[in-house]
Amino acid sequence: MDKQTITIYDVAREASVSMATVSRVVNGNANVKPATRKKVLDVIEKLDYRPNAVARGLASKKTTTVGVIVPDVTNMYFASLARGIDDVATMYKYNIILTNSDSNGEKEINVLNTLLSKQVDGIIFMGNEITDKLRDEFKRTKTPIVFAGSVDEENIYARVNIDYVAAVQEEVKNLIDRGNKRVAFVCGPLEQAINGKYRLKGYKQALKSAGIPYDDKLVFETDDTYKTGTLLQPALMAVNATAAMVTDDELAAGIMNGMSDADVKVPDDFEIITSNDTKLTEMVRPKMSSITQPLYDIGAVAMRLLTKLMHNEPVDEKNVLLPYGLMKRESTK
Amino acid sequence: MDKQTITIYDVAREASVSMATVSRVVNGNANVKPATRKKVLDVIEKLDYRPNAVARGLASKKTTTVGVIVPDVTNMYFASLARGIDDVATMYKYNIILTNSDSNGEKEINVLNTLLSKQVDGIIFMGNEITDKLRDEFKRTKTPIVFAGSVDEENIYARVNIDYVAAVQEEVKNLIDRGNKRVAFVCGPLEQAINGKYRLKGYKQALKSAGIPYDDKLVFETDDTYKTGTLLQPALMAVNATAAMVTDDELAAGIMNGMSDADVKVPDDFEIITSNDTKLTEMVRPKMSSITQPLYDIGAVAMRLLTKLMHNEPVDEKNVLLPYGLMKRESTK
DNA sequence: CAGCAAATTGAAAACGTTTTCACCTAAATC
DNA sequence: GATTTAGGTGAAAACGTTTTCAATTTGCTG
């Protein structure tokens, strides 16, 4: 007894109808007489027939599978998006092939190509540094692509984000209004547009509005890890920063713990605001104030958008911006 | 111009060879003359031919895709396993279809069936309560299945875990040796064998060795969430517990923060040990002492095991136990 | 240089569906 | 009751590969 030996043909024979008819009842096609529908259904039940999705995919050119490219599921930010994606994918009868890219351009290209060879019906991409080579690969395919929590400066692809510029600007303004003259900006790689072009822009705008000159000594480009954060305290002190706007929660947690370990009191001596509002913000002490993002929803909306694209439905706005908020907790005064 | 219109047939024609030969070079079959191999390769390059994995799957009955059933990727424990799985899957040229089950029996069955209909070559299952119905579904298929971080009491399926009984026993013994007479056991659902049969057993054994009678008032069955943990302080105090062995890191973090918020000092007034050693343990203050588990490796080894099963290679031991450790941090004396 | 084994190729049959037509029936129209 | 019309149905052709088997070529052996 092999894997799955009962085919549509067996059902057809047993029910004395054609394969076409079996296919119709399996697919809920209306044009089949109730009596024969029942007959076929009974045989399907009796034989325990399960349609082979691969054969179906070949014949119909639809796999009901979408590819999801994510830097690292182990990062709670992305895990939350992924969960939102999977939930609405399931809702629409799709499955997701999940791949970790480590934000590595070469891996991203490889993974994209294997996803395409597997004939996924659509792709959701997360990752913020889109190299020219990757962009070229994107352009080669007709398969719909949407970005989740990732910007597209060239305004080609559908994407869902929050307004990073405005959010950072607002938070940095608050920091300045509270008397901080030297606010550090601690971020992931500046090559990533989300940091280098958007968040940094918000930071600069806030400074400008407040009449504070931009000082690049206050900008700390990191690799977004907790560990790196824990090591940053001396450098931050060295430039006399009294607050930091941080672009990643784990990184921010690292900074905060580094401060505490060096007996710098948060928020009294140093204020910290983070950006992703993962559950980490609540678990850490003091709890971290954060820009709030609807993480799950970003994924969910991205997937919903993708279903529209896959079904050739019109989408009114390619650049969807979900509302953000500002959550004051205990790492700010 | 559609999705991907260049087929193996086009390549064959252009290179004036048969489809069979093209198939051979694509699959690296040795039996093809170097000259014609080069000719074919050139045409492939020129036409930018990409094999259609779906057609390939239908013809070969191998999809190079495995299904992964996980309670929730958003939980760092499972995210880490998933990462390990994906990395070795990639290494062996497999992709993973990732599905969240919320540990819901019905969802697990649905998801299993759609994975099977998609003809995955293997399945990795995470989740600890295996209902009879689910077990029946498992039995219906010849597709190899391995459990990751999940026990199989019936000893049917390959699985990779740590020795939960021994680990818990050891840690609880330490707690007792340090003078704690009343050690609470705070766990997820006891229906889950990993809690109800393994960890609880370790807890009981430790008590017994120390000559302490088992008191079920000290056993707290929860839903494994952070939030629930934060609410547990009063109940724990009410039964005069002075320490707790906790089965989930987020849950433990909740308990610890709940204690701190109620001015119960950890570890001086209350000791806490957790079980999964996710990076959360280091981020929280005080840092949590934990049983250490090689999370990534559990996933990686499970996937490696699955490749063996899929290739019909012999596996020496179906029940693989990876080494655990005990990491003292700051939540214990 | 005949004879045979090994290496290289191609034709065609799977693989298990969906989908396009054409055909047939039974109901509806006049 | 002849003529449409629409609903049901089946035959067979896709879909793009792999794989089997036989045919052809090539290379050796003596």
From TrEMBL, chains A, B:
Any matching Pfam family: LacI
Name of the protein described by the UniProt record: Catabolite control protein A
Species whose genome carries this gene: Lentilactobacillus sunkii DSM 19904
Entry function: Global transcriptional regulator of carbon catabolite repression (CCR) and carbon catabolite activation (CCA), which ensures optimal energy usage under diverse conditions.
NCBIfam families xrefs: ccpA
Gene Ontology MF, one: DNA-binding transcription factor activity
Keyword entries, A-Z: Activator, DNA-binding, Repressor, Transcription, Transcription regulation
HTH lacI-type domain mapped to chain residues: 6-60
InterPro entries (alphabetical): CcpA, HTH_LacI, LacI/GalR-like_sensor, Lambda_DNA-bd_dom_sf, Peripla_BP_I
Top-level taxonomy: Bacteria, Bacillati, Bacillota, Bacilli, Lactobacillales
The keyword Cytoplasm is annotated on this UniProt entry: no
Keyword Transcription regulation attributed: yes
PANTHER family named among the record's database cross-references: ARABINOSE METABOLISM TRANSCRIPTIONAL REPRESSOR, LACI-RELATED TRANSCRIPTIONAL REPRESSOR
SUPFAM superfamilies, sorted: lambda repressor-like DNA-binding domains, Periplasmic binding protein-like I
Gene3D superfamilies: 3.40.50.2300, lambda repressor-like DNA-binding domains
